[in-house]
Amino acid sequence: MVGYIEVIPLQFLTPNYFGLSIFLVGIILFYLFRKQYDKHVISSTLLWHQVMQEWQATKWWRKLQRHLLMYLQLIILLLLMIALTRPFIGLSEYSGEHIIVIMDTSASMTAEEEESSRLQMAKEEVKDIIDQLDNQMMTVVLAEESPRILYSNETIKNRMIHAIEDLDTSYQVSDVNKAVQLANQILASSTGEIHVFSDRVEADQIRDNFLNYDLTIHNIGSSHANLSLHTFGVSEREGKVNGILTVNSEYTEEQLVRITIESDGEELRQIQELLEPNKLTQLSVEDLPTKPYYKAVITTNDDYQADNTSISFLQKTVNPSLYLVGDVNPFVVRALNYFKTDIIQVENGADVPDDATGIFILEDVPDDQWPNGPLFLLNPRKEGPFDVKEKQDLQSGLRVLKEDPLLNFVDLEEVYIQKSIPYESSQLETLVSTDDTPIISKGYHDGRPVIVLGVDIIDTDWPLHTGFPIFLYNSIQYLTEQQEILGYVKPNEQITIAYNANATQGSIVDENNDKLIDLNVDDGIFQAPNEPGLYRIQEIIGDRTKERLVAVTLDQEEHHIVPSESFAIELDQEDSSVNEQKPNEIWAWITIIAFIVLLLEWEVYRRGITN
């Protein structure tokens, strides 16, 4: 069998510089005529004969030393001349001045492929691209829910490689289409191409109507070995707790699945079921002991672990008391009586018991008498933390700035307001305004949920509309919090929560009670960890610790790992410079060799090795 080796020819971008070879001849002529000999009459040639005999007996490389400087100078000039011709060996596989790499760091990229993960395989392929760059820039975009740039316009290969090696899974849903749009904008002023490293990108997901550069999708992986917990829910009825699990198999044949139900490390139940391939199967579990939460875990080995766990909280009905503080308008009291019976009237905030828990509806109450709990502020008093001003006449109608659960089934078009109470809403989110003046706002103040209604009820006909009691009901629902359970969040999601006003410290701990991060209890911002699982938010209040549970869950899209086929979108460009191929130039290496030879020539001259 005969093998063939492909020989890549050496080519030149500026061969005209070969004309500089005339200087090589110049150096040779310089050495030919550099010495002038004078005639002298000597008494004997006996010594000259001896010198000639020694010269003829000298090894060949010693003879070359007589002209070593000339040879070195010829080599230096020859190398510099070749460097000027810009020689190259073939064309770079990656065209243009700027290469954009989009990395999918979603949960499905943690799926195992042989002895590696898909993300690790993607990293190795990106490092191969970096090795092949020829003085080209690279930008890496992370395809998260909001695309994020890892580094941009980088040309130093070591920095690029280190950044890629340090990249970790975000577990967020990847929005490749947004990332491609961002890459297209980055390339707007240069030439280049875009490479996406993911596992499940389909051609119909890419909107190419805005695409101006060649796009290559590298879908990585081949594994189908996945058992997934799609849903898990529990409910209590007649004193019994029952649950339902939905399990999916992506195997190509029947597979036995084993599932454990546990809580606080205690195993509550084991389930075993034979699943059909590529089919959702619903399983039920009955008569579970009452626990605050339940954790279902697939114990059968598969190639994707991130979707093998699901958390379900046991939801209990919460019916908080309503405290009416101050001179609350009778229309408000009458509307609240339609859906609440546990209503407590107090004259001012000072009369509210310290241990009172519930929802506090305040009207014209100074801020130093506000109880410690969820607040609904009606007709807020002047000054205070929201910088309330005097009433003012309104010149225009109400404008809804944002659709919000507080306004569900609430029609404000026919509502008339004569005067409003201006206030500062920078700490809050304004939902309804008029004349650039906030009317309804919600948010957090001193770690507690707050709703502000910047209207005196006597200055509006809103209580005469059917939407008014609905708004009050929505507001009570919003202010009703289950203090022990925060519910479900996405990886790295930011939410606002109410920290206790007396809390001095806060932290997030995992199921093993290991502290992950300290929290700032002075603001209401909570950023969830990136890895799915159950976490506890701990608050230090005096000499006691308060805990609340939160579950970080995967998006439903991340419960599948069957990969898609790789593909490329090549655009027909009238301007060929947009995607022109870049030659693999080697002039820089030739220049480095010339410099090394120059150092050698200097050392030869310094030592006086030659004549």
Chain-wise SSE layout:
Blueprint: E1 10-12, H1 22-32, H2 46-57, H3 60-64, H4 68-84, E2 87-91, E3 98-103, E4 112-113, E5 116-117, H5 118-132, E6 137-142, E7 148-154, H6 157-165, H7 176-186, E8 192-198, E9 215-219, E10 227-237, E11 240-249, E12 255-263, E13 266-275, E14 279-288, E15 293-298, E16 309-313, E17 321-326, H8 330-337, E18 343-346, E19 358-363, E20 375-378, E21 392-393, E22 399-400, E23 419-420, E24 428-434, E25 437-445, E26 448-453, H9 467-479, E27 485-489, E28 494-496, E29 505-509, E30 515-519, E31 525-527, E32 533-541, E33 544-552, E34 567-569, E35 583-585, H10 587-607
Parallel strand pairs: 3-6, 3-8, 8-9, 17-18, 17-19, 19-20, 20-26, 27-33
Antiparallel strand pairs: 1-2, 2-35, 4-5, 6-7, 9-34, 10-11, 11-14, 12-13, 12-15, 15-16, 21-23, 22-24, 24-25, 25-26, 28-31, 29-30, 29-32, 32-33
Task: Describe this structure as you would to a colleague.
The chain is elongated and about 140 Å long. Strand 32 (533-541) and strand 33 (544-552) form a beta hairpin. The chain is of the alpha+beta class. Helices cover 20% and strands 32% of the residues. The model is unreliable at 1-7, 59-65 and 574-579 (pLDDT under 50). It has an 8-stranded mixed β-sheet with strand order 18-17-19-20-26-25-24-22, with helices on one face.
